[in-house]
Design a protein that fits this description.
single chain, alpha+beta, Ubiquitin-like (UB roll), Creatine Kinase, Chain A, domain 2, Four Helix Bundle (Hemerythrin (Met), subunit A), 3 domains, nine-stranded mixed beta sheet, six-stranded mixed beta sheet, 50% helix, globular, binds adenosine-5'-diphosphate, binds magnesium ion
Length: 727
Amino acid sequence: MATVRHQAYNDVLHRTPKHVEFPKKISEVFGENVFHQEVMREYLPENAYKSMMECIQNGTRLDREIADQVASAMKDWALTKGATHYTHWFQPLSGTTAEKHDAFFKPVGPGRAIERFSGDLLVQQEPDASSFPNGGIRNTFEARGYTAWDPSSPAFVIGKTLCIPTIFISYTGESLDFKMPLLKALAAIDHAAVDVCQYFDKNVTKVIATLGWEQEYFLIDKALYNARPDIMMTGRALVGSAPAKGQQLEDHYFGSIPERVTAFMREFEYESVRLGIPVTTRHNEVAPNQFECAPIFEECNLANDHNLLLMDLMEKIAIKHDFRILLHEKPFSGVNGSGKHNNWSLSTNTGINLLAPGKNPKSNLQFLTFFVNTIKAIHDNADLLRASIASASNDHRLGANEAPPAIISVFLGSYLSSVLDSLEENIKKGKMTPEEKTALKLGIGKIPEIIFDNTDRNRTSPFAFTGNKFEFRAVGSSANCSKAMTILNSIIANQLILFKKNVDARIEKGDSKDEAIFKEIQQMIKDSKKIRFEGNGYGEEWVKEAEKRGLSNFKDTPSALKVWSKKEAVKLFEDLNVLTKREIEARQEIEYENYVYKLQIEARILEDLVQNKIIPSVIEYQNKLIENVKGLKDVFGDNFEKAADAQIKLLQKISLHLNKMKGYCDEMLLQRKIANKIEHMDERAAAYCEKVKSYFDDIRYHADKLELLVADELWPLPKFREMLFTR
Ligand code: ADP
Ligand code: MG
């Protein structure tokens, strides 16, 4: 009888690429489903358009009448795109995006209806959202939370729905989402960076953080996906022996993209571009069936919305092409996992990238200021940055010799390292002589605009300078980047505020402005030295070296999350007005909860696979062997043992692994029951991490041995070679 696995495999062999013909050139459709500035200009009366621009650029409030005009324009435009419904699109702490659709259509009398959308509905909504995670902020009896429009990210139409990006807050004003703290962190860094820019250029009145993410993912055929309950329910294979051929030949990386995959990529890219997401890059990644796509960078909040949208689009369009997309950080052990590099920089209203070396000494001093402040911020707040990327799924990747280590360090490249070293060497007590100042200026002036270092850049660093931006590489592929971006922008805002204070104090004491800045930069270089690392981040030696330097190495999520309980962490976010203590506590609680639930689900599925899939097929094979041994006994009589030697040994091996696997499974179940009784979530998470998760590898070890022993035709689950190499 054909098993589910065999049917699935058969389906895959008959697939053909589903190429879609697109009616227009990609440049013609860019942003066509977005209510962007040009559309607003067309649909809005002039005064409303002006207010709207003010509101987008400076965060000013729209008055009610204007909001009505904007809503009406949005609706008229959306109707031309075939929209029938609208939704507030938001990012609850569950990690995905959420939407609740309402129709534009309103009956206004017997047999009469109109399409209606008012400013009230645009600006604020009250989804019945009592079951979104809130970490105790909302008791169910005061379960009202509401969504509020984020005008800085434009509305868009997907399918037949007008989607309005919104924040999600509790009735008492606390944030229940990822977007609100990000917006606040972006405002904080705007203010802090503008203040510092004023030392160099009075024309700078606005600084935006920029984000360019690179999304890695796996594709597997949907029939094989459906035959793997573990991948379906957890996003990763909980068992499965690594294929004989993995990624060791590195023949997949940058190789030609398979036809079926190209057809999928073309379609999701086309749809992304229509939504204004500037995706331009696609290629194979290191592991078989692993790919990457990246857009041109954008303002951070918009870039993050675009990433979330893209992940959603990819999932939907993959299914149309008979694929399933796996955004999990480590779907298959034995081959590389997936990350999402976050390229980050700061850019001014005067068109300057603050992390790009400039044309002259003055602009280079500005570059160095932001560059060194960033390093100092990472040095002082490495634990917060580590916490920002912590999740049950990313734990598989960080420090697994294929991804940045869980130890946070900064890579600068040899050129800039030597610049900083020489600046530090030149630290002088007291006032600088005019010659010293000139020498420093000359030294700084020599920094070339393009640093050739980035060609040999280090790929093993979690936070690397890559010529004109930093690249935060430890972010997980399934993550909402706003967690990492909220923290990164906050700690740098905090550092810039400190910097300004110190420089002003030096000026007060009689230093010239340049001198004060120089000295402060030198001090920061000295104080942040231990976070800089240029060597191989994947090596064992680094772990030892980092420990010597006193750098943290939080290997798992429960220990990484502890930083949120620290007074200093709370103070930093409260001072910046990014998160309150209550919000931080709620978030921490939710993160622990998420961790526990993820592991609980994985453990249950693993128990289920062992009990209901693997054991039955092993027994079936055992029975075949037993039948065979019995038959041999009939034929050979007393001499059968020699004839049945291989079968008997195989039976013994199978029994051994079967018993071990089942034994560990039972023990894990027991530990799970104990952990589930622990009341405090942080302690329960620690128990899941230390007492439950530890069985995963043992169970898997024996399950994978059995996979290699049991007849291929009886094995119930699609194998890695089928999932990773069939197209
Ligand atoms: P890689 O070799 O890692 O692919 P690239 O130089 O191609 O490096 O850039 C990767 C990403 O960095 C792209 O998404 C790009 O848009 C982004 N990027 C470039 N400049 C900036 C910047 N100033 N701010 C943020 N992201 C940027
Ligand atoms: Mg990169």
